[in-house]
Fold this protein.
Amino acid sequence: MIEGKQTDLPELLPDLVALGFSEYEARAYLALYQLQPATAYEVSKLAGLPKANAYTVLESLSKKEAAQPISESPVRYVAVAPDVLFERISSATARRCAKLIKTIPVAAQFDERGYVWSISRGDAISTKIESMIDGASSHIWIKAAEQNILPYRDALKIATERGVEVLIILFGTQLEKFQFGGTSRTYLHEGNGIPVGIAHKLVTITVDFEEALVAEFENHPHGAYTRNRPIVNLAESLIRHEIYFAEIFEMFGQPIQRTFGTALMNLRRKYLPPAQADALEKLLGLTSDAPPPSTGAPSKKRKEKIT
């Protein structure tokens, strides 16, 4: 028997409460698992519960099939093993969720395709991205920095193996980590993978011409998900043109850079926010004598430089 306070487990209380346990039930289950078999008095002492509540709480756990009595006079309980208990809860929850996903939209006659949903927190964004990848049937297109899609590498590989076309425009250098064979294709952005502006923070993903998500990962991750057809088309078009350019760059990369500068800096100096252009030049180790961006026609000097 362990006396005193629960050891190394109180941090699990919020997870148990999130699964439908009351705080007393969560405390009692964790204490019982450490003590078992144990009486209500022993559980109350370790869990810090009022003795008068311990019997009721253990009976409640029994009804939830999280604990069971094994003797009388005095009644002693044991906790149901976590792998048995939580696998059952997981399966039951998955079935309920699947039923609700199918039933609620039909019952409410609600069409979500007109909405853009805001998503906060990195874990919620990751769950949505995983769901999009797992649900893809024809294609997944992604434009992202390597560190932001590395967690989904295995899921993308599995999608490729089931015949989904995976196309990635990658900011970074680890091209080999995102080459899955089959119909998949990964390109370094503009042939070099150098992040431009805030590209190192972003993920853009579209699936099956039906859904799109744009997310920013950094201090306070946030994103937007939609099945709104015009917005999905906009995101698809963005990535599609990146794919076009990647193919063109593979064939004509050197002439393009001779004309427009390393990493297209001559163009970027015209159209990027000045702070982002400055940061990119510093990253590339370049010194630009380009004039400030203008809303009018390029100067004569500028024309001579890019023609």
User: Anything to note?
Assistant: The chain has three domains: 10-81, 112-256, 261-293. The first helix runs from residue 13 to 18. The domain at 10-81 is CATH 1.10.10.10 (Arc Repressor Mutant, subunit A).
